[in-house]
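Handout, page 2. Input:
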Amino acid sequence: MEKVNFAISDLILYKDNQIIVFNKPAGMLTQSDDKEDKSLIDFAEIYCKHKVYPLHRLDRPASGIVVFAKNKKALLFLTKQLEERTFSKTYLAWVKAAPSPDKATLKHFIKRNGKLKKAFCSDEPKVGYKVAELSYKTNFKSDNYTLLEINLISGRFHQIRAQLSEISSPIKGDVKYGARRSNADRSIDLFARTITFVHPTNGTKQTITAPIPNSSLWLSAGLE
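Output:
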């Protein structure tokens, strides 16, 4: 990925004394791995001047919403919502091969291979595989690509990428999961667009939406 210069504050979508929400650029790690690149959590802790806790992860080549709790109590409260499936996440993804039908729920059994850093899907239960479910609907069609809106029902490693690949609709740029060519910047066209959750302290339902990436393909869909 190309290095870019930015102000940490430019990535912030929402903040208060309980949580901070970022719009992660493609190419940035959510959390550090064995490489020396700074991750989003590093930048979040520099900005907040204290430890923060990631609620979930977003794959390095993908972009969009990532939520950090500012304390363990908020983390537990939000994690419970994830477990009870009351914390909703909506993604957008461009695919070359439009799935059929235009709207469906996908259920597979999925297993993470740590050595290959890849997830594998099966239509049937297997030892070591976990249930993975998502729903999708066609949002927009361009001349060459189809934009899908995706709601996660479960949250597995590389789930969206693996399940769309399993139905022969790999995400644009995602050569690891079957796309025919990579994007020039090695990103993939998977975008975490919206989250909805109940706030840890005030009990109100909140929805946070990230702005659409600034590229001709994304802007062609006419989303605000």
